[in-house]
C-alpha cells in the first residue's frame, strides 16, 4: 500500500536516535514499528537499521509483499527462522551495540540473539523505537480521521440492531461487517458491546447476552484503516435512564469536557489525568473510575502517551493523538464510559471523533 509517507525521512530520524541510545544499530521486530519505518504491513519480519544501510529480513511467506511495500533503498533478505537472522546480524561485524525492543522481542529470542551475536551487546531501546510515532504528521491525521469516519458510519448503519432480543455479538458482528464494507481493514480491536449488568465490565467484549427492554449498552468501537486505529465509546440507553444514571452520565460528560478544555501543549499527561479524575471525584465518585483517563493511538490501538496517574510520558506536545475516556463502574449493576479521541495542535486541541455524546442523543427509546 503506497502512500505519500516519506519513509527515508523516518529512518533518518530513527538513526539520529542511535547516539543517545548508545547503539550502532537498531533491530525492529514489532509490526507497528516495521509499518511506520518501512510501510511493510505484514508480520514475521525484522528491520536492521544503521546509518550506512538498513536491511529487512523475512521468510518466504512475505518476501513478495515486502518487495512491493518497502522502499528500494532497503536491502531485502530472505531468512529461514530466527537463527538465520542471528547469523546475518553476526556477519555485520561493525555492530558493537545493538538496540532491540525489550517489550516486543520474546525472552527466548532475546537470549538466543545475545548468545549468537556475542561479543556484540544487546541493549533495550523500546522507548527510542516508539518515540518518533508520538508525533503524528498531516498524512497520519488524515488516515486517523478516515478511520474515525469509517467507524462512525459503521455504527450508524448498525444502530437498528440496538433493540431488545438482539445479542451483543449481533451488534458487534454488524459493526465489524460495516467497517469492512466502508473500506476499513478490520475492527480496531475486539469490539466491546456490554449491556445491562455487563456494562460494569470496563472491557466487556461482546457476549451472547441478549438485550432486554430498557437496557443500557456501552459500545466501545473503532476501525483500522491503512494501519491506523480509531477509538471511541458511546453509552446508549434503551429507555430514559434513572436519575442516578443520569447524574453519573452527566458527571462523566462534564469531566471529559473539562479535560478537553484544559488541553494545551505543555500540559503534563499526569496533570490531564488529575484534572479529569478530580472532576469525577468532585461529583462524588472516585473509586468507581477504576482506570486511566486515556491513551495514545495510531498504528496501535494503545500506544504512548499514557494519560494516567503513573504516566511516564511527560508533557503533551503538538502532534499527539490520544483519548479522554472517563468511566464509572458499579460491579454487577451497571457502568458508563464516554470516550473521544483528540489531536493536540500548536493552536489547541481538535476532537477527531465527531459523535455528540450529550445524554439526550444517547437515549434510544
Ligand atoms: Mn480507548
Number of domains: 2
Computed over alpha carbons, the radius of gyration is 22 Å
Number of helices: 12
Q: CATH topology of the largest domain, anyone? A: Creatine Amidinohydrolase
Q: Name the CATH superfamily classification of the largest domain.
A: Creatinase/methionine aminopeptidase superfamily
Identify the overall geometry.
Answer: elongated
Task: Describe the structure in brief.
The chain has 365 residues and is an alpha+beta fold.
Please tell me about this protein's structure.
The protein is α+β, with helices and mostly antiparallel strands and 365 residues long. The chain has 2 domains: 7-133, 3-Layer(aba) Sandwich (Creatine Amidinohydrolase, Chain A, domain 1), CATH 3.40.350.10; 138-362, Creatinase/methionine aminopeptidase superfamily (Creatine Amidinohydrolase), CATH 3.90.230. The protein contains 12 helices and 19 strands. It has helices at 7-15, 18-21, 31-38, 63-69, 82-91, 107-117, 126-130, 138-158, 168-181, 243-262, 269-282, 359-362, and strands at 25-28, 45-49, 54-58, 75-78, 97-100, 121-124, 186-187, 192-195, 216-221, 223-225, 228-229, 232-237, 294-296, 303-307, 321-324, 327-330, 334-337, 340-345, 348-351. It has a 6-stranded mixed beta sheet, sandwiched between helices. The longest helix is centred in the middle third of the chain and has 21 residues, at 138-158. It starts with 6 loop residues before the first helix and ends with a helix. The structure holds manganese (II) ion (MN). The site of manganese (II) ion (MN) has 5 residues, from loops.
Amino acid at each position: 500500500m503506497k502512500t505519500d509517507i516519506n519513509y527515508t525521512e523516518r529512518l533518518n530520524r530513527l538513526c539520529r536516535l542511535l547516539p543517545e541510545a548508545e547503539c550502532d544499530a537498531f533491530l525492529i521486530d514489532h509490526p507497528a514499528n516495521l509499518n511506520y519505518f518501512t510501510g511493510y504491513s505484514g508480520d514475521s519480519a525484522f528491520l536492521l537499521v544503521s546509518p550506512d544501510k538498513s536491511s529487512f529480513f523475512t521468510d518466504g511467506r512475505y518476501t513478495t509483499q515486502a518487495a512491493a511495500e518497502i522502499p528500494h533503498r532497503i536491502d531485502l533478505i530472505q531468512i529461514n527462522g530466527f537463527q538465520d537472522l542471528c547469523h546475518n546480524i553476526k556477519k555485520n561485524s561493525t555492530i558493537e551495540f545493538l538496540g532491540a525492543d525489550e517489550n516486543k522481542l520474546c525472552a527466548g529470542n532475546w537470549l538466543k540473539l545475545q548468545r549468537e551475536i556475542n561479543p556484540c551487546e544487546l541493549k533495550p531501546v523500546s522507548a527510542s523505537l516508539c518515540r518518533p510515532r508520538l508525533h503524528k504528521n498531516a498524512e497520519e491525521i488524515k488516515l486517523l480521521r478516515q478511520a474515525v469516519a469509517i467507524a462512525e458510519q459503521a455504527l450508524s448503519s448498525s444502530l437498528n440492531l440496538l433493540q431488545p432480543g438482539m445479542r451483543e455479538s449481533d451488534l458487534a458482528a454488524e459493526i465489524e461487517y460495516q467497517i469492512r464494507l466502508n473500506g476499513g481493514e478490520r475492527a480496531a480491536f475486539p469490539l466491546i458491546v456490554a449491556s445491562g449488568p455487563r456494562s460494569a465490565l470496563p472491557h466487556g467484549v461482546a457476549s451472547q447476552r441478549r438485550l432486554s427492554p430498557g437496557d443500557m449498552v456501552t459500545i466501545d468501537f473503532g476501525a483500522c484503516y491503512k494501519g491506523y486505529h480509531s477509538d471511541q465509546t458511546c453509552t446508549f440507553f434503551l429507555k430514559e435512564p434513572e436519575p442516578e444514571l443520569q447524574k453519573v452520565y452527566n458527571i462523566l460528560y462534564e469531566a471529559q469536557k473539562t479535560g478537553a478544555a484544559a488541553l494545551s501543549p505543555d500540559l503534563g499527561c499526569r496533570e490531564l489525568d488529575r484534572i479529569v479524575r478530580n472532576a469525577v471525584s468532585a461529583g462524588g465518585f472516585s473509586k468507581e473510575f477504576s482506570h486511566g483517563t486515556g491513551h495514545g493511538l495510531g498504528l496501535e490501538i494503545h500506544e504512548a502517551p499514557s494519560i494516567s496517574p503513573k504516566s511516564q510520558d511527560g508533557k503533551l506536545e503538538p502532534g499527539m493523538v490520544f483519548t479522554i475516556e472517563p468511566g464509572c463502574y458499579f460491579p454487577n449493576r451497571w457502568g458508563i464510559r464516554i470516550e473521544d479521541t483528540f489531536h493536540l495542535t500548536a493552536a489547541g486541541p481538535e476532537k477527531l471523533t465527531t459523535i455528540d455524546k450529550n445524554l439526550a442523543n444517547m437515549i434510544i427509546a
